[in-house]
Amino acid sequence: MNTDLHHNYAQDVWDKDRQHFVHPWTHFESFDKAGSLVMNEAKGAYVTDINGKRYLDGIGGLWCVNVGYGREEIVQAIADQARKMPFFNPFVDTTNVPAAELAAKLAELAPGDLNHAMFSSGGSTANDSAYRLIQYYQRDRGKPEKRHIIARKEAYHGSTYISASLCGKESDRNPNFEYQTDNIHHVSTPDPYRIGDGMSEEEFSSFLVEEFEQKVLEIGADAVAAFWAEPIMGAGGVHVPPQNYFTGIQAICDKYDILFVADEVVTGFGRVGHWFCSNDMFGIQPDILVSAKGLTSGYQPLAATIFSDRIYKSISANPGNWFQNGFTYSGHPVACAAALANIEIMEREDLFAHVREVGPYFMERLQTLRDVPHVGDVRGSHFMACIEYVANTDTKEKFGYDVNIGKRVSNAAEKRGLIVRPVGHLNVLSPCLILTKEQCDTIVDVLRDSMTEVLAEMKTDGVI
Ligand SMILES: Cc1ncc(COP(=O)(O)O)c(C=O)c1O
Fold it and tell me: Which of 26, 100, 348, 378 has a CA 20 to 30 Å removed from the CA of 389?
C-alpha cells in the first residue's frame, strides 16, 4: 500500500473509532479531541500500531496476554474448533467437548475442593455469578439473612451492576450511577505504603484482621455471607498484603461461617508464578475462585467461577433446586479450546518457573527507580508492579488530580516505544510472562528517561 493511501486508511480507522466506539472508561471531552492509539499487530511481547510503530507491551494487553502474542497453537485450536463446531447451546443438559475438558482441568488446577466451574465471558460476569451463587446457597440452606458482603476499598471487581458495587475505588464511584450499597461494605485496603505506615508487618496485619472482625460484628455475624478479595490487589494499585493477613481473615470467616471469595482474575495463570496464588502464596482455601484474563491469555473472552464441593453438595442436596444462572456463551467451545491450548503451553514450557526467576529480577530492577525524585513507592510481585508518584516523598502528599503524572509518564514512554498503564498518580505494569531480563532492563531504562523528561516538563510548567 502506498504511504498516502495507508495514511488515509489509518486516519479513517482512527476517526471511525473516535466517532462510534464507546470505550470502557471513556472521558468524552478528551477522547473527542485525541481519539485512540490504534493497535494493529502483535508478536511475542510486542505490539505494533496501525502506522507501523512497535512497542514493548508493558501491560500484557491488560494483565492478560500471559503466554505472549502470536502463539500459533492457540490460533490453530481456535480455528479447528470454529470449523468443527463454533457453538451449541450449553443450557441445562447439552454441552460441548472443550467446555467439559476445561471444567475438569480447572478442577485439577484450582486448590482443594474447588471442583465445579460456571463459565462466562469476562471477570465482571464471573464475579456476578459468584454473587448469585452465594445468594442462592445462603437462602437455600436456610440462612436468608446472610446477604451482606464485605469487600475492600480500592478493590476492582468489574463493571456490571453488582461487580461495580463490589469495587471500592472512590474515584470510580460516579454519582450518575447507582450502586448496591445496602448490603455491600468495604474495609481498609492492605496498602502498607499508606494505610500501614508506621506499623510493623505484624501490627498492620492484626489491624486489618481486627477491623474486619469489627465490621462483621457491626453488621451482625449471622448476616454476613462472604468476604471478597483480590489476593494481590491489581487495578487499585498493586497492593501485596502483609504476611498473615489472609490467614487471619480466613480464620474469622471460618469462625462466623462466612464464605471467602478470591478474585484471581489478574493473579491467576502465572502472573505471580502459580496457577492460582490464594493457596500457593497466602495459604488460604477460598470457597469460590474467580478467574478470567490469563485463562485464555486474552486470545478469547472467557472467565470461570470455580466453587467448592461443599457449596455444590449443599445446593444439589435439594431435589427441587434449579440454579437459574448462566449465559448463551457459558462454556463457549471456541473460547474453551483456546484456554486448553493456552494451559498446554504454560505446562509444556514450565512458564511459571520463568516467572519465578525473571519476576523477582523485574521487581529488583524497578526498585532502582526509587532514586527518581517524586517516586514515592515501587511495589508488586513478579509480573504485577506499580510505581506511585507523590508531590512530597516525606509527607506522601499526593499530586492534584489534574497533574495526571501517570498519564504524562505513560505518554513519554509511548513515544519511546513502551506501553505502561496510567492510573491517576500511578503507573501499573503487567507484562507478558515470557518477558526476558533484557526486556525488563529496557522497561526500567525507558521509564527512567520518561520520568526525567516529565519531571523537567513539570518544572517548566511550574507544577513542581
Ligand atoms: C481483579 C479483577 N476482577 C475483575 C475484573 C473484571 O474483568 P472484566 O473486565 O473481564 O469483566 C478485572 C478487570 O481488570 C480485575 O482486574
Answer: 26
Ligand 1 mean position, distance from CA 127 (Å): 9
Distances (CA, A) of 341 to 71, 94, 111, 336: 10, 23, 21, 9
Whole-angstrom CA distances from 213 to 136, 138, 216, 253 are 24, 20, 5, 9
* CB-ligand 1 contact for 266 (6 Å cutoff): yes
Each residue of 131-182: pLDDT tens digit? 999 999 999 999 999 999 999 999 999 999 999 999 999 999 999 999 999 9
Residues of the chain with CATH 3.90.1150.10: 37-67+350-460
CA of 131 relative to ligand 1 center, distance in Å: 15
156 CB within 6 A, ligand 1 = yes
Class of domain 72-348: alpha beta
What is the DSSP code (8-state) at residue 231? S
Q: What is the pTM of this model?
A: 0.98
Residue 122 Cβ inside 6 Å of ligand 1? The answer reads: yes
Q: Which of 120, 131, 265 to mutate to test the pocket of ligand 1 (most atoms within 8 A of CB)?
A: 265
Look at residue 7 and tell me whether its pLDDT is greater than 90: no
CATH 3.40.640.10: which residues of the chain?
A: 72-348
Task: Identify the H or E element spanning 428.
Answer: strand 426-429
What pLDDT, in 10s, does the model give residues 48-104?
999 999 999 999 999 999 999 999 999 999 999 999 999 999 999 999 999 999 999
Is 414 exposed, middle or buried (CB count within 10 Å of its CB: 0-12, 13-18, 19+)?
A: middle
The ligand 1 atom at the shortest distance from the C-alpha of residue 158 is 6
Atom of ligand 1 nearest to the CA of 127: 4
- pLDDT tens digits for range 413-464: 999 999 999 999 999 999 999 999 999 999 999 999 999 999 999 999 999 9
